[in-house]
Specification:
Chain A is α+β, with helices and mostly antiparallel strands. Chain A is 69% helix and 9% strand. Chain A has 13 helices and four strands. The longest helix of chain A has 45 residues, at 273-317. Chain B is α+β, with helices and mostly antiparallel strands. In chain B, a hairpin with an 8-residue loop joins strand 1 (29-30) and strand 2. Classes of the chains: A alpha+beta, B alpha+beta. The interface between A and B is large, with 75 and 82 residues.
């Protein structure tokens, strides 16, 4: 099943590139028209502060009633409380801190709530004051947070390229570089497009997706390299690449991580809103990494490998021993006509054979075809050698006739 | 390895791992026979600094002098009598109320000494000053490097600042960052003459402030220009020593009217540079805050607006996302760790038991590192939980891959021992590659700021622990455990029709 899936995905780089581009474009459009969906706690909001001067023991018994008065008043005014924080200012001073969305209209809530408290006899001697504020966020990110985060991402991709290229050849390094970069971009794009509330934790998930993609790419790259060494030829066809995509191990890792984050999401539903948001972001990161490494990377690998195989093949044609027999002469042979230098042609044929023997193991099957193509050259050279004396004889006869 | 030796080693291993696991994950409890005076502090619960993702934090208001919150104004108002005295046209309360204009949830004093109000409207100079203050205060908190914080303008003319619970020095930070004014030097209470001359700026003498380290101490280094060195060279002999501590001859580095750092004769080096405010390594956070303040004051200079009474406005804030989230996250991580152990044992039987040992070892190493390598670096955030879980799952998946590699060799007809050797051999370089790439990635993440940098440091710990478990520890345990087994086929759950060999 994994092979069938891989056969459908490998060789369709254009399709996956278009899909990625569409996702990126969609996120840009959403961002332009709807802006960032900042989490309310990192954005500007409106607040109502209820300050209560009461001993801690007394406050413990009255807290519920005080909150009920506040909630009833907010409900009457049509104001949705997003968060409420029960803060302690000092031993005899407490505070209820209500947070509302930026678009909330206060109206006369301050006066209404104040009068409700003033009307309660028990709170007459207690200082219960209600104040409504507008809270406009100025700064919420550490110095250089975004810039350094992006820089770290770039360095991750470069290091992934460098290591994979050194260990598993440069074409695999290129695949690792592009896949990790794509996973970072797509993670950001999907998070923006799906309007998941943005906090500083988004950067954690983006960096994580890059690391996960690097791991998943390594699974496939390692398998392909092993297959290449066993087959003694490049893995550069849809069939062979599809056969060697490390589907099972990649899926095992991704599914395990998805299960873990699903647990976090379930806990988040009941206990902590930020767990739910973070789990959602992490699930996006895993899915994007799976796409980048299991679908996109093998599709990208194929044309890149073919390109490098073609370059290797081209280099192999000129691959000769420096200063060796027929070495320089081979170049000159290519420039001269075969009839004028019969002896070097024979040696050229031999040199071509030597060159064919000396070419690296990775020589493609096309090189074998090339050897076949060279055979006619040999024959041609031999025929030329046979023809040369014939032509020479013909010329002599012509001269004699004259 | 002989069977007896293997059994002894396995028993010792069991004792060690169980003991360390209990030590790492046990909750805090008190001994009942000691009336709660003595007990056990859980490393994970007590020593880990939880970030604002799990614990609340603190916040305060910065009200410029002359600006009051409506609540404070009403409170002050009630202290005045509303009875009109004889010969007076207004009650004291009305007189007090006349001295303020209302602006949203604030009251601004019309007293000219504050310069807030002009002709019944908010003074433009004050509005411009507020814009400058906005940039300065946000830059200070931004430069401090908290994993999460928030600076907001409240009703246009006040500030509200939030800090995470992990900052134990929050009071000092709130107070220090509220100081507005230029950096200046005083000897005792008298300003240094040279700085009072016209056209002279403190920047002509001081370049910047940095943190230095010596042995187990950190200190603030005052980087001086040549003119600054000459000035200090002239003054140093007349300065008080730290032992005599004569305040009238001590030099102070001030921000506005507030003395921030004392400079004694002992603090002046032979090259006339100043190293002062030596504090032990654990207190580096306080020096970091001072340096940010001093550099900010050096850069921005004088302000006409000052803040006071910041400490009285500090509130402790609960986590808005939920209650006891520090306990919840520890329980979630424990549950997932246990689920990994159970899943591996169910799937791979006795070979899965090796995974259980590896997982527990990973838990012990990472848990103790997170708990005891503190110093304000290792705040536990959602990123920390992410890297812990990622490496935990990766470690178990790689262990499972080892199993399948061994099985593949076994299916080719090799003996169990050969299969183990060849199976491990076939996966070792992939495992090395994966951990190498991840470590490089984690090192690259150190470039990030605040939470990303913290996550990188924790990722390095998790990855080193994971690599150790996968490449060495797990294989060693497998070797020892396998040596204790009578039936090696059963250990791996292998079945071979023709088993003439064993």
């Amino acid at each position: 099943m994994s092979k069938k899936f891989a056969q459908k995905t490998v060789g369709k780089l254009t399709v996956w590139a278009i899909v990625s581009a569409v996702i990126l474009l969609a996120s840009i459009i959403v961002m332009i028209f709807a802006g960032f969906n900042n989490h309310i706690l990192t954005d500007s909001y409106k607040t109502v502060t209820v300050s209560v001067q009461m001993s801690s023991a007394e406050y413990k018994t009255e807290a519920e009633n005080i909150e009920k008065i506040c909630n009833d008043a907010f409900e009457e005014a049509g104001m949705d409380v997003v968060y409420v924080s029960r803060n302690k200012v000092s031993t005899n001073s407490h505070e209820l801190f209500y947070i509302f969305g930026q678009a909330t209209k206060f109206g006369t809530i301050q006066e209404t709530l104040q009068s409700k408290f003033s009307a309660v006899a028990e709170y007459e001697d207690n200082f219960v004051k209600v104040v409504a504020h507008t809270d406009s966020v100025v700064e919420k990110l550490p110095d250089g947070y975004l810039l350094r985060g992006v820089l770290a991402g770039v360095v991750i991709a470069v290091l992934a390229f460098a290591y994979v290229a050194l260990r598993h050849k440069i074409w695999n390094g290129i695949v690792a570089f592009v896949a990790t970069g794509l996973s970072a971009a797509l993670s950001c794009a999907v998070i923006l497009a799906t309007r998941i509330p943005i906090t500083t934790t988004v950067l954690y998930a983006v960096e994580f997706s890059m690391l996960l993609t690097a791991v998943l790419v390594l699974f496939t790259v390692s398998k392909i390299r092993k297959a290449e060494k066993e087959a003694n030829e490049p893995i550069a066809t849809v069939e062979t690449v599809a056969e060697n995509v490390a589907f099972k191990s990649s899926l095992a890792l991704c599914i395990s991580l998805l299960c873990v984050f699903a647990v976090l999401a379930i806990v988040g539903i009941f206990a902590a809103e930020n767990f739910l948001a973070f789990a959602a972001i992490s699930i996006v990161a895993v899915l994007v990494s799976a796409f980048s490494a299991i679908v996109f990377a093998p599709a990208l690998y194929l044309p890149i490998r073919k390109l490098f195989a073609a370059w290797a093949e081209k280099r192999a044609r000129y691959d000769y021993k420096k200063g060796g027999k027929g070495g320089k002469q081979q170049k000159s042979v290519k420039q001269d006509t075969p009839a004028q230098t019969p002896a070097p042609v024979e040696e050229t044929a031999e040199t071509a054979e030597e060159a064919a023997e000396e070419t690296p193991v990775e020589e493609t099957s096309e090189a074998a075809e090339e050897a076949v193509e060279e055979a006619p050259v040999e024959e041609t050279a031999e025929e030329a050698v046979e023809e040369a004396p014939a032509e020479a004889a013909t010329e002599e006869e012509t001269d004699q006739q004259e | 390895m002989g069977k007896k030796k293997s059994v002894v080693l396995m028993v010792l291993l069991n004792i060690l791992i169980i003991a360390l696991t209990v030590f790492t994950v046990s909750p805090t409890f008190w001994f009942p026979w000691n009336d709660g005076l003595n007990g056990w502090n859980s490393p994970l619960g007590e020593f880990i600094d939880f970030g604002s993702d799990f614990k609340g934090g603190y916040y305060t208001y910065y009200y410029p002098d002359g600006v009051y919150s409506e609540a404070q104004y009403q409170s002050n108002l009630e202290n005045y009598s509303d009875e009109v005295a004889e010969g007076e046209t207004q009650s004291p309360r009305d007189k007090y109320a006349e001295g303020f204009i209302a602006h949203k949830g604030l009251r601004l004093s019309t007293d000219s000494q504050y310069g807030l109000v002009k002709n019944g409207k908010v003074n433009d100079d004050f509005v411009n000053e507020m814009q400058r203050l906005r940039n300065v205060i946000s830059d200070r908190y931004s430069a401090r490097g908290y994993s999460s914080f928030r600076v907001a303008v409240v009703d246009d003319y006040a500030f509200r600042v939030e800090l995470p619970a992990a900052d134990a020095l929050y009071e000092s930070t709130f107070e220090l960052f509220s100081y507005m004014g230029a950096v200046n030097l005083k000897i005792g209470d008298t300003a240094v003459e040279e700085l009072e001359e016209e056209g002279v700026s403190i920047n002509d003498y001081i370049t910047n402030f940095t943190i230095g380290a010596q042995y187990n101490f950190n200190y603030i280094r005052v980087n001086l220009t040549q003119a600054g060195k000459d000035l200090i060279g002239e003054k140093k002999d007349s300065l008080s020593t730290q032992s005599s501590n004569d305040t009238s001859t001590t030099m102070y580095i001030c921000v506005g009217d507030t003395k921030i750092l004392p400079v004694y004769q002992d603090n002046v080096r032979s090259d006339n540079l100043i190293n002062c405010a030596y504090l032990e390594g654990d207190n580096k956070a306080q020096l970091d805050t001072m340096v940010v303040l001093l550099n900010s004051a050096l850069e921005h200079g004088e302000f006409s607006v000052t803040f006071s009474g910041v400490s009285s406005e500090i509130r402790e804030m609960e986590n808005l996302n939920g209650e006891n989230l520090d306990v919840v996250i520890l329980l979630v991580l424990a549950a997932i760790t246990l689920a990994c152990i159970v899943a591996m044992i169910v799937k791979y039987r006795r070979y899965g038991v090796v995974a259980a040992y590896m997982t527990l070892s990973y838990l012990i190493v990472t848990g103790l590192c997170f708990a005891f390598i503190s110093g304000g670096i290792f705040e536990f955030t959602l990123g920390s939980a992410l890297v812990y879980l990622f490496v935990l799952v990766l470690m178990n998946v790689l262990h499972a891959m080892n199993y399948h590699a061994i099985k593949k060799q076994f299916d080719l007809g090799k003996t169990v021992d050969s299969s183990v050797m060849l199976g491990y051999k076939s996966t070792i370089w992939l495992t090395v590659d994966i951990y190498a790439v991840l470590l490089l990635g984690a090192l690259a993440m150190l470039i990030g700021a605040a939470g990303v940098q913290i996550m990188a440091l924790q990722a390095i710990i998790c990855l080193v622990a994971g690599a150790f478990c996968n490449l060495l520890w797990g294989r060693l345990i497998n070797y020892i455990y396998l040596s204790t087994q009578k039936n090696k086929f059963k250990y791996f759950g292998f079945v071979r029709e023709d088993d003439d060999d064993e």
